[in-house]
Protein backbone atom coordinates (compact mmCIF):
# COMPACT_ATOMS: atom_id res chain seq x y z
CA UNK A 1 0.00 0.00 0.00
CA UNK A 2 1.48 3.36 -1.00
CA UNK A 3 1.33 6.50 1.18
CA UNK A 4 -1.61 7.89 -0.82
CA UNK A 5 -3.68 4.77 -0.19
CA UNK A 6 -2.73 4.75 3.49
CA UNK A 7 -3.84 8.37 3.94
CA UNK A 8 -7.10 7.79 2.06
CA UNK A 9 -7.88 4.68 4.12
CA UNK A 10 -7.38 6.75 7.28
CA UNK A 11 -9.88 9.31 5.95
CA UNK A 12 -12.38 6.56 5.13
CA UNK A 13 -12.03 5.22 8.67
CA UNK A 14 -12.41 8.69 10.21
CA UNK A 15 -15.74 9.09 8.42
CA UNK A 16 -17.14 5.86 9.92
CA UNK A 17 -15.65 6.52 13.35
CA UNK A 18 -16.96 10.08 13.59
CA UNK A 19 -20.52 8.99 12.80
CA UNK A 20 -20.41 6.09 15.25
CA UNK A 21 -19.04 8.39 18.00
CA UNK A 22 -21.89 10.83 17.33
CA UNK A 23 -19.53 13.54 16.09
CA UNK A 24 -21.83 14.59 13.27
CA UNK A 25 -20.26 18.05 12.96
CA UNK A 26 -16.84 16.42 12.64
CA UNK A 27 -18.16 14.07 9.99
CA UNK A 28 -19.73 16.96 8.07
CA UNK A 29 -16.45 18.89 8.27
CA UNK A 30 -14.82 16.14 6.20
CA UNK A 31 -16.91 17.49 3.30
CA UNK A 32 -16.08 21.19 3.68
CA UNK A 33 -15.12 21.25 -0.01
CA UNK A 34 -16.98 18.13 -1.07
CA UNK A 35 -20.34 16.52 -1.61
CA UNK A 36 -22.01 13.66 0.26
CA UNK A 37 -25.24 11.74 0.07
CA UNK A 38 -27.41 9.07 -1.39
CA UNK A 39 -27.16 8.88 -5.14
CA UNK A 40 -29.57 11.46 -6.54
CA UNK A 41 -29.71 13.57 -3.35
CA UNK A 42 -26.29 15.05 -2.72
CA UNK A 43 -25.44 17.69 -0.12
CA UNK A 44 -22.61 20.12 -0.94
CA UNK A 45 -20.25 21.45 1.74
CA UNK A 46 -20.11 20.96 5.49
CA UNK A 47 -23.26 22.99 6.29
CA UNK A 48 -25.50 21.05 3.90
CA UNK A 49 -24.01 17.72 4.99
CA UNK A 50 -24.54 18.62 8.67
CA UNK A 51 -28.16 19.54 7.92
CA UNK A 52 -28.67 16.06 6.44
CA UNK A 53 -26.89 14.40 9.39
CA UNK A 54 -29.13 16.29 11.84
CA UNK A 55 -31.76 13.64 11.00
CA UNK A 56 -29.63 10.97 12.71
CA UNK A 57 -31.21 9.94 16.02
CA UNK A 58 -28.74 10.11 18.92
CA UNK A 59 -29.06 8.20 22.19
CA UNK A 60 -27.06 9.99 24.90
CA UNK A 61 -25.00 11.56 22.13
CA UNK A 62 -24.41 8.46 19.99
CA UNK A 63 -26.38 6.76 17.19
CA UNK A 64 -25.60 3.27 18.58
CA UNK A 65 -24.33 2.17 15.18
CA UNK A 66 -21.26 0.54 13.70
CA UNK A 67 -20.34 1.43 10.13
CA UNK A 68 -18.40 -1.58 8.86
CA UNK A 69 -16.45 -1.13 5.62
CA UNK A 70 -15.38 -4.15 3.60
CA UNK A 71 -14.03 -4.94 0.15
CA UNK A 72 -12.17 -1.62 0.15
CA UNK A 73 -10.56 -0.76 -3.17
CA UNK A 74 -8.47 2.40 -3.45
CA UNK A 75 -7.28 3.59 -6.84
CA UNK A 76 -4.43 6.03 -6.20
CA UNK A 77 -1.26 6.25 -8.21
CA UNK A 78 1.85 7.01 -6.22
CA UNK A 79 2.48 10.75 -6.43
CA UNK A 80 -1.04 11.48 -7.71
CA UNK A 81 -3.18 14.36 -6.44
CA UNK A 82 -6.52 12.65 -7.16
CA UNK A 83 -7.88 9.22 -6.31
CA UNK A 84 -11.01 7.10 -6.29
CA UNK A 85 -12.23 4.37 -3.95
CA UNK A 86 -15.06 1.92 -3.66
CA UNK A 87 -16.13 0.02 -0.56
CA UNK A 88 -19.04 -1.97 0.77
CA UNK A 89 -20.75 -0.56 3.84
CA UNK A 90 -22.84 -2.44 6.38
CA UNK A 91 -24.43 -0.37 9.14
CA UNK A 92 -25.34 -2.29 12.28
CA UNK A 93 -27.52 -0.80 15.01
CA UNK A 94 -28.74 -1.90 18.43
CA UNK A 95 -30.98 0.21 20.68
CA UNK A 96 -31.70 -1.82 23.83
CA UNK A 97 -34.24 -2.95 24.81
CA UNK A 98 -36.51 -2.09 21.87
CA UNK A 99 -34.32 -2.74 18.85
CA UNK A 100 -32.02 -5.78 18.81
CA UNK A 101 -28.75 -5.69 16.87
CA UNK A 102 -29.29 -5.93 13.14
CA UNK A 103 -28.09 -4.64 9.80
CA UNK A 104 -30.07 -1.54 8.92
CA UNK A 105 -28.24 -0.61 5.74
CA UNK A 106 -26.02 -2.35 3.20
CA UNK A 107 -24.66 -0.46 0.26
CA UNK A 108 -21.63 0.82 -1.59
CA UNK A 109 -19.56 3.96 -1.15
CA UNK A 110 -18.18 5.48 -4.36
CA UNK A 111 -15.59 8.08 -3.41
CA UNK A 112 -13.39 10.63 -5.11
CA UNK A 113 -10.53 12.39 -3.32
CA UNK A 114 -8.11 15.23 -3.94
CA UNK A 115 -4.82 16.16 -2.34
CA UNK A 116 -5.16 19.77 -1.13
CA UNK A 117 -2.45 21.56 0.83
CA UNK A 118 -0.73 18.23 1.60
CA UNK A 119 -3.93 16.60 2.94
CA UNK A 120 -6.28 14.14 1.27
CA UNK A 121 -9.88 15.37 1.24
CA UNK A 122 -13.22 14.05 0.13
CA UNK A 123 -14.39 15.47 -3.18
CA UNK A 124 -17.45 13.22 -3.19
CA UNK A 125 -18.91 10.29 -1.28
CA UNK A 126 -21.83 8.86 -3.23
CA UNK A 127 -23.79 6.25 -1.27
CA UNK A 128 -25.66 3.63 -3.29
CA UNK A 129 -28.11 1.53 -1.23
CA UNK A 130 -28.39 -2.18 -1.92
CA UNK A 131 -30.46 -3.40 1.05
CA UNK A 132 -32.26 -1.13 3.50
CA UNK A 133 -33.64 -2.47 6.77
CA UNK A 134 -35.54 -0.81 9.59
CA UNK A 135 -34.15 2.73 9.79
CA UNK A 136 -36.79 3.98 12.27
CA UNK A 137 -34.34 4.02 15.20
CA UNK A 138 -31.56 5.63 13.13
CA UNK A 139 -33.10 8.57 11.29
CA UNK A 140 -35.87 10.85 12.50
CA UNK A 141 -37.11 11.30 8.93
CA UNK A 142 -37.60 7.52 8.60
CA UNK A 143 -39.34 6.86 11.95
From TrEMBL:
| Transmembrane parts of this sequence | none
The record's listing under InterPro entries reads: NTF2-like_dom_sf, SnoaL-like
SnoaL-like domain location is 4-126
> Would you say which domain of life the source belongs to?
Bacteria
Name of protein: SnoaL-like domain-containing protein
Amino acid sequence: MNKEETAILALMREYCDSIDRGDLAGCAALFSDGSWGIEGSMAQGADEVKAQLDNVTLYEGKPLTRHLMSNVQIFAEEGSTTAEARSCITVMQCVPPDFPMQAIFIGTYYDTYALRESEWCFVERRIVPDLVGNMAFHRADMA
